[in-house]
Every structure is written in structure tokens, then in C-alpha cells.
Design goal:
Layout: E1 3-10, H1 18-34, E2 39-41, H2 59-78, E3 86-93, E4 107-115, E5 118-124, H3 136-139, E6 145-151, E7 154-160, H4 162-165, H5 170-176, E8 181-185, H6 194-209, E9 212-216, E10 219-222, E11 225-228, E12 232-234, E13 240-243, E14 250-257, E15 275-280, H7 303-321, E16 327-330, H8 335-348, E17 353-357, H9 365-378, E18 381-384, H10 388-398, H11 402-424, E19 427-428, H12 434-439, H13 460-476, H14 485-489, H15 509-521, H16 526-530, H17 536-548, H18 550-554
Parallel strand pairs: 1-2, 2-3, 6-15, 7-8, 8-9, 16-17, 16-19, 17-18
Antiparallel strand pairs: 1-14, 3-4, 4-5, 6-7, 9-12, 10-11, 12-13
Helix pairs in contact: 1-2, 5-6, 7-8, 7-13, 8-13, 10-11, 15-17
């Protein structure tokens, strides 16, 4: 069987940075070529970044993408890398005339093989996802070919992301075409437990395709999405040959023994009416060589480490890719702001993290002390600005009471944070968690202010889990745990009135989060939730709070997605809505 050295480059890409992304492709191609790779693959739309959203509808951007691809092919050849075939994802356009029901301009989520300074083969994603955060029917037209490229005597079938996730199409077509290897390029966003789902999928598709299957993934972050890498190679039986680490840029190299290509290149129509398009680059197998890369399987992260790393990755990407140098956090001494501060310090370094303690007459001394202790443990910058004088001035003028008085304190803090941000430049981080956002337990223009919400998609019960994990991880490394124990152990409170606790307004978080997970993440109705054993009155109360808080969530900043259904593109409900779930 021919030997074949495959290089899967799971790298970060920035949407719209065609030059920077091309530089990265050249850098990692050189890395792979220097190590003897026979075929080099990069993630889906790596040249443009992903998702490009409505940029796909802008002709100037599509044209720039196509021009950048051609320039990249020439540059690889000019820099001595032209003999190595390189698979690159990019944004293309169909040559067909626009038809009713198609996106304007007929853009394509495409990939191309670059070789000897030329684009020798290009194709578009066949299956277009239209669920969750994906709107690809809005943006793209589907591909209708089954691309196969012969390299070093092996027929390599090619596919793009959703082509692997959906039945039919290119996976069975790879078997029909007699491919010895199926390579899929991906930009599949992270969510908890998706790595297990992904592995099961790749194993299943390899068996269906009847050949070794490689899944190269993106890493890094883009707005609310995080990509966790986790590139995988499995053999035709579904056994794992190699697996890259999560949340890291790396080149996964693996030496494979693959079936030799048939004497006659495949042709004709494969599954789903796909026309086989075959290109031969090198028909003869390479001379036998020592196996230097038998395949490495990286260790898996625990659920807590996986989620925490995703939060760090998402925040770092958002801050750095948008040109901010530092962040600002309102530190109350509570668990939410403490976890946000710890994530920020890990993402950016404590020198780039600024905290402001903004005590009022209702702020306990232990909360003030906890904020100071957090700063001491992490090394972030902390200042204290009491809001008492501002609060008294408003109260004297307006005479507020009850909820209006409580919300005034939160809004004063939000105004103060934004004023410091405007004056000094750091990006304000909103500390709200998914439980609070779900039931509207937050103040518009108060604790909801900010440009990014790092724990927006983290339920309160999981906030505690992550804080405990982060402290335990520090202890294992003989480091100072960043989050004060008192911030974890004390009952949650907004401290906006005397002796206030979250449980005055909300159910216990373990119960609340279980109901929210069913209603928000799984779209269960009230009857289904009650059937799980929850009190009918409590269920109706919680669901009513969720439904009436939609207008608040629409105004909340973006934040890292880690669950199957985050607030934002994942979950889209009308604000004006008289439908109510009832038992």
C-alpha cells in the first residue's frame, strides 16, 4: 500500500483578514512541507474567516476572496512550496446566473486545491446547514460535484463540514469513487460534549465511506463562537489513528498506509446526483520512507476545563481581534464578577485587567474585602469608587423607593464603568450569567452594560463549578487559587437592599437551572417539564419570567457560546408574544 504523510493544520482565522489569514496558510504550509507532508489541509473558509455572514452578499468581498486565493497559489509556488498540494477553504461565487430563491450573487462556501501556482480544483459545500447559529441557505448555493484528487498514487476525496454531518452526498460518494482517503475541512463551533459527538460521527462516516477519514477543524474565536480544534484521523474501521489537542493551533502530522488508486480514474455520477470531478497531480506512489509520525492522540479535557478554556479562548479572541488592549470589570466580591475576572486574567494577563469596586450603603464589608482579595490573588489592577454621593444626589432629586431604588444603584455602577471605559480605553465586561439572563434578573443599563459578556452562556450552578475547578487547578500547580473561597461559599446576593439574597426572588439555582435547561436549551413545554417531577406552579412562574424578559436579552452584549442553545442567534423568539406555556 502506498505511504502517505498527511498534515492537518488546525489554526485560527480572523474574518475579513485576507492578508493575515494567507500569511498563516503560508507559514503552516512551510511547517508541514519541511516535515515531508504529501498533502496539507486547512479549515473551512480559512482564507476569509468563518462565519462571514452578510459579507458573503457583498460582491467586493467575494471578489477579494477569489483574488486572494489566486495570489496565495502563486505565493506558495514562489516561496518554494508549490509542489505540495494544499487544500484551502475560501469564499467563491457560482458562475451560473442568479435564480429566484438563491442568495444574491450566488456565493459558495468553497475549498480549493492549490498546486504549482495554480488553483487545480475547486468545489463548494454540498449540504448547507440551516439550524442553530447557521444560516447558510441565506448565504450560499450548494456544490454539485464529488471532488477527488490523486496525490502520491492515492485518490483523496474532499468534503466540507456539513457534508460529513448530514447523511448522503459526499460520504457515500467517496466509496463509489473508490477513494483511499476522505478529507473534510471544518469550522464547526464548540459546545459542551461536541467532541464526543464529533468522534462518533467521524467513526461512522469513515465506515460508510470505506476509507480512512480525516477531519481538520478550526480553532480560536469569532464573536460569540469558539472553535476547539480537535482534528481527527480514523481508519476505515473507525479506529482512531491520530487526534489533535483542543483549543490549540497545531499541525497534526500522520503517516498513513492507504490503498493505491485504481488504474482508471473514477468518473460518472455518485450519490445525490454528484458528478465526480477527478484531477491527477501525482499518479505514482512515493518511495518508501521511515514512519516518523505514527499518529498522536492528545489527552481529553474534563468538562470543567473544556468550558473554562472555551471562555478564555472566546474572550481573548474578541478583545485582541477587535483591537482592545485591556478590559474593565466591576468587582462586587460575588461569584460572577470573580469568575469573569479570573477568565480575563487567564485570557489577557492580569496587567491588562482593571477592576473597580463600587460599594454602596448596602455593600457588606466582606464583599469589599473579597474584591480586594481577588485583586491580591490575581494581580489585576483595582480601585474603589463608592457610589454613595451619586446615589444620594439622585435620591434627593427623585425620591425613589423599592425596585427603582435598587436599580438606580446598578445603573450608577454601569454609568461609572462606561465613563472610565470612555476616558481610559478598557473594554467593559458584563458579568451576567445565563440563569439571570433567562429570568430577567438583571438591570438594563446597569449590570448589563458592557461590550462582551464572558459568562453569558453559563448557568449559575455551572459558574460555581467552574470557580471551584479553577481554584483546584491552581492548587494542583502550587499556584494561588484566584477566587476567594468566601466568594464561592457565601449565598449569592445583589446587595441592593438590606439582607438581600437571590433566593428572595428566585428558586434555588440547582432547581432553576434544571428547569431552564429543559425550556431554553431543549425547547420543552411546561407539560413536559412538569412530567419530569417539577412543581407545576414553580414551572409556570419560571417560564413566565423567561418569556417576559426577552426584551432585556435582546439588548445584552454578545458573549461566548458553550451550550447547544445560547441566547442570540441560537434562540430567536419574538419580543411581542402573548403565547404562554401553561400546565
Amino acid at each position: 500500500m502506498p505511504q502517505f504523510r498527511l498534515a492537518l493544520n488546525q489554526i485560527d482565522a480572523t474574518v475579513g483578514d485576507l492578508a493575515g489569514n494567507a500569511d498563516a496558510v503560508v507559514h503552516w504550509t512551510r511547517h508541514a512541507a519541511d516535515r515531508g507532508a504529501h498533502f496539507v489541509a486547512f479549515p473551512e473558509m480559512v482564507l476569509t474567516g468563518y462565519p462571514v455572514e452578510d459579507l458573503a452578499l457583498r460582491s467586493s468581498f467575494v471578489e477579494a476572496s477569489c483574488a486572494a486565493l489566486r495570489a496565495l497559489a502563486g505565493r506558495l509556488a514562489a516561496e518554494g512550496l508549490g509542489e505540495t498540494p494544499v487544500l484551502v477553504g475560501y469564499l467563491d461565487r457560482s458562475g451560473e446566473r442568479h435564480r429566484y430563491g438563491q442568495p444574491a450573487g450566488s456565493p459558495k462556501d468553497a475549498a480549493a486545491v492549490l498546486h504549482r501556482g495554480e488553483v487545480v480544483l475547486s468545489f463548494a459545500k454540498h449540504h448547507l446547514p440551516n439550524y442553530g447559529v447557521f444560516d447558510e441557505f441565506r448565504y450560499f448555493v450548494p456544490g454539485d460535484t464529488m471532488p477527488v484528487v490523486r496525490v502520491a498514487g492515492v485518490d483523496v476525496a474532499l468534503a466540507i463540514c456539513e457534508d460529513l454531518w448530514q447523511d448522503g452526498g459526499r460520504v457515500p460518494s467517496a466509496r463509489i469513487a473508490g477513494a483511499g482517503l476522505l478529507v473534510t475541512v471544518n469550522a464547526s463551533p464548540y459546545e459542551l460534549n461536541k467532541d464526543d459527538t464529533r468522534l462518533d460521527l467521524v467513526r461512522k462516516r469513515a465506515q460508510e465511506a470505506g476509507c480512512t477519514t480525516a477531519y481538520v477543524a478550526m480553532t480560536g474565536g469569532q464573536d460569540e463562537l469558539v472553535y476547539d480544534g480537535d482534528s481527527i484521523v480514523v481508519d476505515a474501521r473507525g479506529e482512531v489513528v491520530a487526534r489533535a489537542a483542543q483549543f490549540t493551533e497545531e499541525c497534526l502530522l500522520v503517516d498513513l498506509d492507504l490503498p493505491a488508486a485504481a488504474a482508471r480514474p473514477p468518473a460518472g455520477i455518485a450519490d445525490d446526483g454528484l458528478r465526480i470531478e477527478h484531477v491527477t497531480l501525482s499518479a505514482e506512489p512515493v518511495a518508501p520512507y521511515p514512519r516518523r509520525y505514527p499518529g498522536v492522540v492528545a489527552d481529553r479535557l474534563s468538562d470543567e476545563e473544556e468550558m473554562y478554556t472555551a471562555l478564555v479562548t472566546g474572550l481573548r479572541a474578541y478583545v485582541e481581534k477587535n483591537g482592545f488592549g485591556s478590559v474593565l470589570v466591576g468587582l462586587s466580591g460575588g461569584i460572577d464578577s470573580s469568575l469573569v475576572a479570573a477568565v480575563a486574567c487567564d485570557a489577557l494577563g492580569p496587567d491588562q485587567v482593571y477592576g473597580i469596586s463600587m460599594p454602596s450603603r448596602y455593600s457588606s464589608q466582606h464583599s469589599r474585602d473579597d474584591a480586594a482579595e481577588l485583586a491580591r490573588r490575581t494581580g489585576l489592577h483595582l480601585r474603589s469608587v463608592p457610589i454613595g454621593p451619586m446615589f444620594d444626589a439622585y435620591m434627593e432629586s427623585l425620591g425613589l423607593a423599592g425596585l427603582a431604588e435598587e436599580n438606580l444603584q446598578s445603573r450608577l455602577r454601569g454609568t461609572l464603568l462606561m465613563a472610565v471605559s470612555n476616558q481610559e480605553g478598557p473594554l467593559v465586561l458584563a458579568p451576567g450569567n445565563k440563569s439571570e439572563l433567562a429570568v430577567g434578573y438583571s438591570t438594563l443599563y446597569g449590570d448589563s452594560v458592557g461590550a462582551y459578556g464572558p459568562i453569558k452562556d453559563v448557568y449559575k450552578s455551572v459558574v460555581f463549578r467552574l470557580a471551584k475547578w479553577r481554584n483546584a487547578a491552581a492548587a494542583e500547580r502550587n499556584e494561588i487559587p484566584p477566587i476567594p473561597e468566601n466568594s464561592i461559599s457565601k449565598p449569592p446576593s445583589a446587595e441592593l437592599r438590606p439582607d438581600q439574597l437571590d433566593t428572595d426572588s428566585l428558586p434555588d439555582y440547582d432547581v432553576l437551572d434544571a428547569i431552564l435547561e429543559l425550556y431554553v436549551d431543549r425547547d420543552h413545554g411546561s407539560a413536559q417539564i412538569v412530567a419530569r417531577g417539577y412543581d407545576p406552579e414553580l414551572v409556570e412562574r419560571v417560564l413566565r419570567m423567561v418569556d417576559t424578559a426577552e426584551y432585556k436579552r435582546r439588548q445584552y452584549p454578545p458573549g461566548t457560546k458553550i451550550s447547544p442553545k445560547g441566547f442570540g442567534k441560537d434562540r430567536r423568539l419574538p419580543i411581542t408574544n402573548r403565547w404562554r406555556e401553561r400546565v
